[in-house]
Specification:
By secondary structure, this protein is mainly alpha-helical. The protein is built from 10 helices and no strands. The chain starts with a helix and ends with a helix.
């Protein structure tokens, strides 16, 4: 059973530990923001209207959407599962099971931290992108927020699945990377989905990264996300979440 006071105390401690890890802060918060500002400022084509994007500039919706996707995926598929597996590997969860604070409180605290970091990273990316590159604010804020919550839930559920089945930290880091990079590609990080062959784009539609990335881009551009992408994200969230709950081992 998760208790709110215990979870809050653990979240405060875990936040301090997270902030003491420069690599984690850099990769999940600084790197996506730096890529947006550096590439958006230095590559003129990113600031020119693109017919493939409906006349919008890449920095208006496509590029910010990809940076938000990158931040959430790094947290969900690297930071979260690695932390949980290391706690299990070192016996922290086993020792915690003998105290009034349950291991589930630590799991809840980790989720709170990672969700909080993803929100901060997204807010910085969008706000500084607006100030430096004149990217528009989300044209449909509540639509964007809904897509962000649903997509983040799906990806964190996948990350919890990795943590559930990985025997040690080395395996979970390797597995996370093996999942992360193909999903980033299918999400449109290196090849925009509009330029993908039809077959590849259809495959992308049914991945959490493809559905999330396109949903973010649509919401930032002021378009309604496709129902297919919302259904795919909901499906991944439910299936991966149930699998993680069934398979997760505290010891």
């Amino acid at each position: 059973m998760v208790t709110i006071p215990a979870t809050a105390r653990l979240a405060a401690v875990e936040t301090k530990l997270f902030l003491r890890e420069p690599a984690a802060v850099f990769s999940t918060v600084i790197l996506p923001l730096a890529l947006l500002l550096a590439l958006g400022s230095s590559i003129p084509d990113f600031r020119k209207p693109d017919p493939a994007l409906g006349g919008q500039r890449p920095v208006d919706a496509q590029f910010p959407g990809m940076m938000v996707l990158l931040s959430v995926m790094l947290l969900a598929l690297s930071a979260l599962p690695t932390a949980l597996v290391m706690y299990r590997e070192r016996g922290v969860l086993r020792r915690m099971s003998t105290t009034p604070v349950r291991p589930s409180s630590l799991l809840a605290a980790q989720l709170v931290i990672n969700v909080g970091v993803s929100v901060v990273a997204t807010a910085l990316t969008l706000s500084l992108g607006h100030l430096v590159l004149d990217t528009p604010a989300p044209r449909a804020f509540w639509t964007f927020a809904g897509v962000f919550v649903l997509g983040s839930t799906a990806l964190f559920a996948v990350g919890l699945c990795l943590a559930a089945v990985a025997p040690n930290s080395r395996v979970v880091q390797g597995a996370g990377a093996a999942v992360l990079f193909p999903l980033l590609f299918l999400g449109g990080m290196w090849l925009p989905r509009q330029m993908m062959p039809e077959v590849l784009r259809r495959i992308s539609d049914f991945t959490p990264a493809g559905a999330f990335g396109q949903g973010l881009t649509d919401a930032l551009a002021g378009h309604a996300p496709q129902l297919l992408h919302l259904a795919v994200l909901a499906g991944w969230a439910v299936v991966a979440g149930l699998a993680a709950a069934r398979l997760f081992r505290w010891q």
